[in-house]
Write a structure and sequence with these properties.
By secondary structure, the chain is mainly alpha-helical. It is built from 3 helices and 2 strands, in the order ββααα. It has a two-stranded antiparallel ribbon with strand order 1-2. The chain is globular and about 50 Å long.
Length: 122
């Protein structure tokens, strides 16, 4: 069943670097989570000498999810609000974080020209 009103979250061009806006496979209702992931990735770029990427992402995600859970608790004491939004919030945060890392990599190493019959990645 498809929802024709579904809109995708986006990842903007970082500071006008000339990269196209990325459309993410995340519901636009979670754009704020995407944006938080982007900000966390930006923080990593400032702290990358002090912490590894594989330690930074889980720590930021944990902190973000704690904040979301607290906000949900204020909206409804039951766990239902949190349960409805936890996985989507987690996915959106990670999409923003990793999307921003991908953008940075594209700035360093632009994508090669697309081949007409490129092999699919599995």
């Amino acid at each position: 069943m498809s929802n024709s009103s579904f809109q995708y979250a986006t990842l903007p061009d970082p500071a006008g670097a000339g990269l196209p806006v990325m459309t993410l496979p995340v519901d636009a209702r979670y754009q704020q989570a995407v944006d938080c992931g982007v900000r966390a990735a930006q923080a990593f770029f400032c702290e990358d000498d002090a912490i590894s990427l594989h330690a930074h992402l889980p720590a930021c995600l944990h902190h973000y999810l704690q904040m979301v859970r607290q906000a949900c608790a204020l909206l409804a004491p039951a766990e239902t609000v949190w349960q409805q939004h936890e996985q989507a919030s987690r996915d959106a945060f990670c999409a923003g974080y990793l999307g921003r890392i991908q953008q940075e990599l594209r700035l360093i190493r632009p994508s090669p020209p697309r081949q007409r019959h490129a092999a699919a990645m599995h």
